[in-house]
Design a protein that fits this description.
Strand order of the largest sheet: 1-2
Radius of gyration: 11 Å
Number of strands: 2
Shape: globular
Length: 49
């Protein structure tokens, strides 16, 4: 999708346009990013296994 050069907020913004859900294991995402007003649901898994 050409997103390799995107990081953090830019990646979330790009994902919002094509997806309804982001699945991640990043437990600190809500501390690292302002998620207010995002149009994508975010599911944080507790472990990678």
């Amino acid at each position: 999708m050409g997103w390799a050069e995107l990081d953090n907020g830019a990646l979330l913004k790009a994902a919002e346009t094509d997806f309804d859900l982001l699945v991640t294991t990043d437990q600190n995402l809500h501390y690292q990013q302002n998620l207010d007003g995002r149009r994508i649901a975010i599911l944080v898994l507790p472990t990678t296994s």
